[in-house]
Amino acid sequence: MSEKLKSETSWALRLGTWGLPILAVILFIVFSIVLPDSYPTFSNLQGILSNQAIPAILALGAMIPIVTGNFDLSMGYGVGLSHVVVMWFLAYKHIPWPWICLLVIVGGALVGLINGLLVEFAQIDSFIATLGTGSVLYAFSGWITGGGRIVPPFKGLPISFTDIYDRHILGLPMGFYYVILLVILLGLVLELLPAGRALYVIGSNPRALNL
Predict the structure, then answer these.
(1) Rounded to a whole number, what is the distance in angstroms from the first to the last CA of the chain?
(2) Residue partners of 159: CB distance under 8 A and separation at least 6
(3) Backbone dihedral region of 21: left (phi > 0), alpha (psi from -120 to 50 degrees) or beta?
(4) Which tens digit of pLDDT belongs to each residue from 150-162?
(5) Which of 70, 118, 192, 207 is 20 to 30 A (C-alpha) from 132?
């Protein structure tokens, strides 16, 4: 490989790795210049971190199947059903919220297991399989709500429950810390542990992994 081709390949890899962070910095600078009184403020930063924490967590979760060369289109539907289930139990069944959250986590793991079985053992394309399970989850959401809205209890939701996300530490929302923690954990797993390396091999060459 010529030196010129090596250099071009290196720059392409760097652009693919750092392109989005660089673009984010450029956009921040541009909007800070255009809207100096509202955009580069701490309150706006709090709002951005709070609003984008959940999409960031979903993106980190979606990164795992993408590393293996698959897709999970059921995640959004799963989040919607989880929200419906939590609110339904809180509003109508008065079950302590830790048990409800545990139920939702176990249910999410079960959906992930079903997706994995459909893709790996039934040999259904991940795009089709997860779209199908997502449609089922969406149907369950509509069945629980009856097409209406769930009204929270008159006394409101428990403070200890809402503080899971609404609480601020050092002026920053909890969602921001969840994202940072997940980034660190995923980075350690994918880059340093054999299980993470195996995920990359699955995505690039599953036949070599089987050998």
Answers:
(1) 29
(2) none
(3) alpha
(4) 777 666 778 888 8
(5) 207
For residue 79, give Cα distances in angstroms to 107, 152, 174: 11, 18, 18
Record the tokens describing residue 203, joined without a space.
């995505």
- 160-203 pLDDT, tens digit per residue, is 888 888 888 888 889 899 999 999 998 888 888 887 777 777 76
For the four alpha carbons of 8, 20, 196 and 204, in that order, the dihedral sign comes to negative
Query: Could you tell me if 144 and 85 are in contact, meaning their C-beta atoms sit under 8 angstroms apart?
Result: yes
What are the angstrom distances between the C-alpha of 140 and each of 65, 73, 146?
24, 16, 10
110, 38, 101: which is closest to 74 by C-alpha? Answer: 110
The torsion region of residue 168 among left (phi > 0), alpha (psi -120 to 50) and beta comes to beta
User: What percent of the residues of the chain are helix, what percent strand, and what percent coil, each to the nearest 5?
Assistant: 80, 0, 20
